[in-house]
Amino acid sequence: MRLAAIIATATFVIDQVTKLAVVQGLNLIERGEIDVLPPYLVFRMAWNRGVNFGLFAGDSDAMRWLLIGVALVISVWVWVWMRRQKTTRMMQVSAGLLVGGALGNVIDRIVYGAVADFLNMSCCGIENPYAFNVADIAIFAGAIGLVLFTDGGAARKAKPPRGKTP
């Protein structure tokens, strides 16, 4: 679990540093949008009070604290689950990404009342209306990794039933 802890810490730090640098350092809160490599990369300020794509968004404090609680419960559950399993390196990396990203977004909800999203990427004539952050990328990659790399995941080799050969 040492690798998972290192990945979680690194993910958390990278997420928070990028948010401080872009949102505060470049004053994205006031500027609203900065073209970096348009349309491929634009910094576009968005406050997400919900989960992915603004689902379950609400301006109530109760929803904010509920989402904080859910993120913490999921993080603890994933951590305990990984400690009880024989884990591979990829499982630990995936768990670390998910937990580090979730904790990064929890800090945003506590400090700002919402998650600070600022990355917007579009390509090939398709304009993406959504913004996201490093924590969102880590959560997504970690969840996919846990599905693929845990026992029973899609990446597991199929074994023929006992007594039968292929």
3D structure, described in words:
The radius of gyration is 18 Å and the shape is globular. The two termini are about 35 Å apart. It has a 3-stranded antiparallel sheet with strand order 1-2-3. Strand 1 and strand 2 (about 40-50) form a beta hairpin. The chain has about 170 residues and is mostly helical. Helix content is about 55%, strand content about 10%.
Name the features.
3 strands; globular; 55% helix; single chain; three-stranded antiparallel sheet; 166 residues; mainly alpha
Brief summary:
By secondary structure, the chain is mainly α.
What is the spatial order of strands in the main beta sheet? 1-2-3
How many DSSP-defined strands? 3
Over the alpha carbons, how many angstroms does the gyration radius reach? Answer: 18 Å
The number of helical segments is: 5
Instruction: Indicate the proportion of strand residues.
Output: 5-15%
Helix content: 55-70%
Structural shape: globular
Instruction: Specify the structural class.
Output: mainly alpha
| Largest sheet composition | 3 strands, antiparallel
Distance between the termini: 37 Å
Secondary-structure element pattern, one letter each:
HHEEHHEH
Mean pLDDT: 86
Count of folded domains: 1
Low-confidence stretches: none
